[in-house]
Amino acid sequence: MIDVTIENFEAEVIQASMQVPVLVDFWAPWCGPCKTLGPLLDKLEADYGGRFKLAKIDSDQEQQLAGMFGIRSIPTCVLMIGGKPVDGFMGAQPESKLREFLDKHLPSEAAMAAEAGADEAQQLLDSGDVQAALQMLQESLAADPSNDDARFDYARLLIQTGAVSEAEAQIEEPLKRIQQPLRFVALKAWAQAIRFVHEDDRGDWPLEQFDAAIAANKRDFDTRFAKAQALMAEGQWTASMDELLEIIMRDKTWNDQAARKLFVAILELLTPPKPKANDAVPGTTAGGIALTGKASKQEDEVGALLSSYRRRLSMALN
User: Whole-prediction pTM value?
Assistant: First the structure.
């Protein structure tokens, strides 16, 4: 628990809520219900073990803050997430109701463990310890099977290490949903491209053999598509999209739009993950200082590449 004033409000509430939900308790020393609610909130902050932070504001002493939140009666509690108020309640509440309110908004312990594990896995991967990263992602997913971010990262790394069957098993559940998540559809397309290389006779073809067949018949879309899959399996993303564009420009609907779907899958695989609520703005430090180094340049290059190929796809479809 921390006492908040106008001087530390920005740091202890707004900025802090970018990292962890902050429950702001507006109270006053003369308020009877506040004396009942306050100790319960203190207890819950300890019980929830860091899943939220409690900030208390004396509404008599900090009338400017009370006015900012439109406080009309006390106690009033406001839950801040990502720098914004998302919910709240007025009056003293029993512990069961307080837990119900918090559980509706706070990440579960399993979700927090999975998130921490995924972050650690990325650090391991950055250091080159791929097997340890795989193990950490597997444990994160076991802790919270509903965590799609951990599942995606785990399945993607499995594909990268050649464990295609294991990856396909991991993406089976998301692909059964009525609304299939595009990123898992993209992983499936990548796995299928790798399977094509291993299982189809053309998987052993050198690029020159593909090119010779295509030169003999510019509308040999089956061969063009096979070449695109082979290139995709090798991680030659732009070369694969270039071949797919040749199909799309000649026949947009060929094979139930297979070329367009694979093109979109590659774009999805190349798209950087969305920043988390507590991440710095891309190209800046955590403090918002602009970066001009290698990492920022790489992000700009990826963004430019994606924009270019999205435009080319749009032109081919129109």
Answer: 0.66
Residue in the block written with tokens 């009370």: 66
Is 77 designated active site?
no
- Cα separation, 263 vs 244, in Å, equals 7
Examine the domain organization and report whether 126 and 154 are in the same domain.
yes
Task: Tell me how many domains the chain contains.
Answer: 3
For residues 159 and 216, membership in a common domain is answered with no
Torsion of CA 107, 111, 113, 115, to 10 degrees: -100
- Close Cβ partners of 156 (under 8 Å, ≥ 6 residues apart): 167, 187
Residue 45 and residue 129 share a domain: no
> How far apart, in whole angstroms, are the C-alpha atoms of residue 31 and residue 10?
26
Closest CA to 52 of 115, 119, 2: 2
Output phi, psi for 2, to 5 deg: -140, 140
- CA angle at 67 for the pair 61 and 71, rounded to the nearest 5°: 90
Q: Which domain holds residue 153?
A: 110-180
Find all residues with CB under 8 Å of 76, minimum gap 6, and list them: 26, 69, 88, 89, 90
Contact predicate 175/188, CB 8 Å: yes
Choose the catalytic residue: 34, 37, 55, 79. Answer: 34
Catalytic residue among 31, 74, 98, 245: 31
Q: Which tens digit of pLDDT belongs to each residue from 233-261?
A: 999 999 999 999 999 999 999 999 999 99
